[in-house]
Specification:
It is a single chain. By secondary structure, the protein is α+β, with helices and mostly antiparallel strands. The chain contains eight helices and eleven strands. The strands form three sheets. A six-stranded antiparallel sheet has the order 3-2-5-7-8-9, with no helix packed on it.
């Protein structure tokens, strides 16, 4: 019987754990001016999984390096005060005894299987060895903490409802005399009668002054009273002119 080598057996049991993958995350250069060396010291990257999360910071080569990452599916997030980075999905699997790493673009609020473009992949050179891969992450934009003050805009001024109402009222005030002049005599008379009724309704005191109490007590009709009042007014004006 071959004696059992306990230290060797213990190392063999730990082999799948120790042969974990190494991931180096690099930042792709965006279209706008950007340099990874200008990132603040608080910038960090986190690999989220069902268990404990892995966290690292930028090294001297401006990369986020994760060492000894076990098998599983991870969500990579980069936390920065200045910029917004895209999240990535990184899968580490065992294919024919080799570590295989593959990363994709992922989207917040979507299903985990909804994957975008590939951001990097590699496998171990020989069976039983760990895989090292470079993953590239894109910068989505710059964080703005302050709202920019808008300058003067003639379009925003003209689109103001109060300004539009004022322009409409001014156009109606200036254009009404021209509309009245172009009316026919019958329509003009009706319009003047409506204006007179509105003025009388708006000023009850004037209506009381023109009210003929004696004629009302004598039983005269309102039309006759109005006609007699108008005739008396016209007669008085003729006498003043004469």
């Amino acid at each position: 019987m071959v004696p059992l080598n306990y230290p060797l057996a213990f190392v063999t049991l730990l082999l799948p754990i120790t042969l974990a993958a190494q991931i180096a995350v690099s930042i792709s250069h965006p279209t706008f001016p950007f340099s990874a060396s200008t990132l603040s010291s608080s910038t960090s990257a986190t690999l989220h999984a069902a268990g404990a999360s892995l966290r690292t910071v930028l090294n001297r080569n401006n990369k986020f390096v994760f060492g000894s990452v076990p098998f599983g599916s991870y969500l990579l997030e980069i936390h920065s005060r200045e910029f917004v980075f895209e999240p990535l999905r990184i899968d580490i699997t065992d294919v024919d005894g080799k570590n295989y790493i593959k990363s994709w673009q992922t989207f917040q609020g979507n299903e985990w299987d909804n994957k975008g473009e590939i951001r990097g992949e590699s496998d171990a050179s020989v069976a039983g060895s760990s895989a090292n891969t470079d993953v590239y992450v894109n910068v989505l934009g710059v964080k703005d903490y302050y709202a920019k003050r808008l300058g003067f805009s003639i379009m925003s001024l003209l689109s103001n409802p109060m300004i539009l109402i004022a322009f409409f009222s001014l156009a109606l005030l200036l254009g009404m005399p021209y509309l009245v002049e172009n009316m026919d005599e019958e329509t003009k008379a009706e319009f003047e009668a409506m204006q007179k009724e509105r003025r009388t309704a708006a000023n009850p005191a004037a209506a009381m002054q023109n009210f003929d109490l004696a004629g009302w007590m004598a039983g005269s009709k309102p039309e006759a009273l109005q006609t007699s009042t108008d005739e008396a007014t016209n007669e008085g004006q003729r006498r003043r002119k004469g």
